[in-house]
Design brief:
about 70% helix; Serine Threonine Protein Phosphatase 5, Tetratricopeptide repeat
């Protein structure tokens, strides 16, 4: 049986709250400026009311159709709601109004990544890096996108760049290990997974992938320990059921 490696995606969402002085009425009857509506939208987003937040941002946009941060924050709320296509539209609008909006490029890249448009995501992350070559998040997510296109060398280069800029980046160590393992460098992968666990002993993906790598070396006892730890740490949620079944099956096959 072929078992899958686990990557860790890091998001770049960051709210912005600047605004205009036009007044309007929100869905709950409150009046205020466009900025007031964005502020209320941000608060609702933080409280988990994504639909309410989206409505508030829409009210702000109705008052000022050029209000960049209303579109940006509506894109964030749509992304959190799982509406990647809607988020893409919002971030593209932001970039039409403000082409150098770094966070919009970053989050557009993430939304494109989530829809499977890896080439589009790569373009956005590279756009960010042309302006800011030290942007750790852009290097990291570019590495993920390159990995998923099959460009292992490119991914490895990006993860190494992340670690040069941020040596304690746990997810970069983990995903560098994944890329090295996929490339056939099992010992290098094991080293990266162990480094990640030294930084965060509860990192599920590092335990899981270390278990896979150790299994490949024939160290079944150590592999079992890592996979059992991953199973304990992995939340028992519907989206994790496939992974839980996979690990359980693997443990059943280890003597």
């Amino acid at each position: 049986m072929r078992y899958f490696l686990m990557l860790t995606l890091v998001v770049g969402f960051s709210v912005q709250q600047f605004g205009c002085a036009t007044t309007g009425v929100s869905r709950d009857g409150l009046t205020g400026t466009a900025k007031d509506h964005v502020d209320r939208g941000v608060k609702l987003h933080e409280e988990g009311d994504l639909a309410g937040a989206i409505t508030e941002f829409g009210t702000a946009i109705g008052l000022d159709p050029t209000y960049v941060n209303a579109y940006y924050n509506r894109g964030l709320a749509m992304a959190d709601k799982g509406d990647s296509e809607g988020a893409i539209g919002e971030f593209r609008t932001v970039l039409n109004l403000e082409p150098n909006h770094e966070l919009a490029h970053t989050n557009l890249g993430l939304a494109l990544y989530n829809t499977g448009d890896l080439e589009g995501a790569i373009t956005e992350f590279r756009t960010v890096l042309r302006r800011d070559p030290t942007n750790v998040l852009a290097h990291y997510n570019l590495g993920l996108a390159l990995y998923n296109t099959g460009d292992l060398e490119g991914a490895i280069t990006e993860f190494h760049t992340v670690l040069r800029l941020d040596p304690d980046h746990v997810d970069a160590h983990t995903n560098l290990g994944v890329a090295l393992f996929k490339k056939g460098d099992t010992e290098g992968a094991i080293s990266e997974f162990r480094t990640a666990l030294g930084l965060n002993p509860n990192h599920v993906n590092a335990h899981y992938n270390l278990g896979l790598a150790l299994l490949k070396t024939g160290d079944a006892l150590s592999a079992r320990k890592e996979l059992e730890e991953a199973l304990v740490l992995l939340p028992d949620t519907p989206e994790n059921q496939k992974t839980i079944r996979t690990i359980t099956l693997m443990l059943g096959r280890i003597n």
